[in-house]
Amino acid sequence: MLKEALFGHNYNFTEGDMNRAIVLLAIPMILEMAMESLFGVVDVFFVSRLGPNAVATVGLTESLLTLVFGVAIGLSMATTAFVARRIGEQDPEGAAESSVQAILLGLLLSAVVGAIGILEAPALLHVMGATPAVEANARYTQVMLGGSAVIFLIFLINGIFRGAGDAALAMRTLWLANGINIILDPCLINGWGPFPRLGVLGAAVATTTGRGVGVLFQLWALKSGANRITIRRAQMRFNFPVMWHLMRVSSTGIAQFLIATASWVALIRILSSFGSAVVAGYTIAVRLLVFAILPSWGLSNAAATLVGQNLGAKKPERAEKSVYRTGFYNMIYMGLVSVAFVFFPGILVAIFTRDPAVSSPAISCLSIFGLAFVSYAWGMVLMQAFNGAGDTLTPTLINLLAFWACQIPLAYWFAIRLGRGPRGAFTAVPIADLVFTIAALVLFRRGTWKEQRI
């Protein structure tokens, strides 16, 4: 089973043993998400040697990139839902058509984002509260935002692979992209061998190059004809009815993730008022957090694929069962992560920094965030179940409630009004996560997601 999961297998996820279906999807998806999280961890590991201002540059740019990720992931989730539904209906041609239109739409959006990033990087950093020393590293931000096309495409095409059940292909893409990033990062940052010494800019060049090579591999896989989804030359054109339908479904998906990611931008804006050291500490903590949570997100993606394909095959009961089974496994994993974050945060942070001004807020962040991981594990799976069904509106409303009606007002109140500083802002996060999960569970049990048509 492990071999099938890692190397890919033409398995019918609408029939047979449920546990086997979850394992075959979850293992490559977990490894895929772990590889995606490594981009950030590797970057901050090498950049942390350059000082707090360099780390703060990465952190503030990452907060801006979360908006890009929000759009890319929202469109990716809609694409996954379309592809999974078509595969469940035994319509590979329809799946390929939806895939092409998603890629074209992603290219159009990335062109707008890239132009803004290249032209307005210093102004964007200033709005985020960057100090003059951080603004001096604006070229890092220009490269990261200017290369947003590879971010859009790597998320979108991996969403296509996941929807089709080709999770192993998505995993291999991130392995390749990350391997290149890991090799280039220290070379370009430190000027090893024939490479120029670029400092923090080198991390941006390495990451963008790694993702770019990953996208080339994805495009080759889509054209090869050896997988569930094959794109032919005749399909490589604008199909505006299909694109419009995809845009209509993905609009709420994009809003869903923009609402969530924008809340993290607002949170780091609150934290930036306490200085670059706090931002640097938060950046390190969030990289560790993302490294731990993205595998859980990968497990949740398995639920999205199972829901989409089984609804397409007219098996809503099997779709619901897959969500509860996946949620249980995710709860066990996130429970173990919670123990590590709550009881041993200092050991984890020490890998990146021993500066007390930076490590103190990082340790506080990890230990507080970890309190809600068990409940959030269920929330993540339920949210992806809605998305896999094509019901992107419900998660959007839940995110609006949890993050903007709860998390940001509480973070500001605790940190600024009550004078509790960064710890006050961090405390708002587990409260919002609990609200998020309760709302998702109540709405999931209503069952209206089973009637979604896409």
Please describe what this structure looks like.
By secondary structure, this protein is mainly alpha-helical. The chain has one domain. 82% of the residues lie in helices and 0% in strands. The protein has 17 helices and no strands. It is globular.
Please state the overall shape, judged from the principal axes of the Cα atoms. Answer: globular
Instruction: Kindly state the number of beta strands.
Output: 0
- The amount of beta strand, in percent, is under 5%
Low-pLDDT regions: none
Mean pLDDT, rounded to whole units? Answer: 89
Q: Fraction of residues in helices?
A: over 70%
Kindly name the structural category. mainly alpha
Radius of gyration: 21 Å
N-end to C-end Cα span: 32 Å
Compute the number of helices. Answer: 17
**How do the helices and strands follow one another from N- to C-terminus?**
HHHHHHHHHHHHHHHHH
The number of domains is 1
Oligomeric status: single chain
* Main sheet properties: none
Question: How do the helices and strands line up, and which of them pair or pack?
Answer:
Blueprint lengths: L1 H6 L10 H30 L4 H37 L3 H36 L4 H4 L2 H9 L1 H17 L2 H24 L9 H25 L15 H33 L3 H37 L3 H28 L1 H5 L6 H14 L3 H17 L3 H25 L3 H26 L8
